Amino acid sequence: MSLKINIIKDKLLSDNYFILRNFTYELTRSNGEVVRHKREVYDRGNGATILLYNRDKNTVLLIRQFRIATYVNGNASGELIETCAGLLDNDSPEDCIRKEAIEETGYEVGKVEKLFEAYMSPGGVTEIVHFFAAEYSESMRANAGGGVEDEEITVLELPFPEALAMVKDGRILDGKAIMLLQHAQIAGWLKA
Q: Which residues pair with 36 in a beta bridge?
């Protein structure tokens, strides 16, 4: 089924760090009725994320960092436990996630497996996130991680069952991390 969309207005609201636009559009419904909508759309580019896991140790590498959006929405510390991730900029998803892994976790990953892509907040954000997984070992550690420039990232190596428990009890609230941890559990890469 293909809907008919007619863009009436496209107004730039902000081109500061990312791009925020206001769209007015008409959508012709399947019954022929035309409905007018006004929506803001935030374009921050596309991204990639990766779950690093170690089968022998039954562990995963996650990161903790401050996120202003969570802070202003009631997260008292503003810190969020997440999977390593970043914006593509001009890189391919695979190149991006290799770069982010070494910057954020300190591990230089070898083979990465592309799992899927997902829109994380399609009601107002254009971003598609590319999801990856890769095994890590101590021999891949190139530096301490922690991010670059203005980032303040803590690397967390967690037993897989503890990471799953943290999802259940609300200590892990990042959608990317939840999706990748559950994917690892379903795939049977690690012991829950």
A: 26
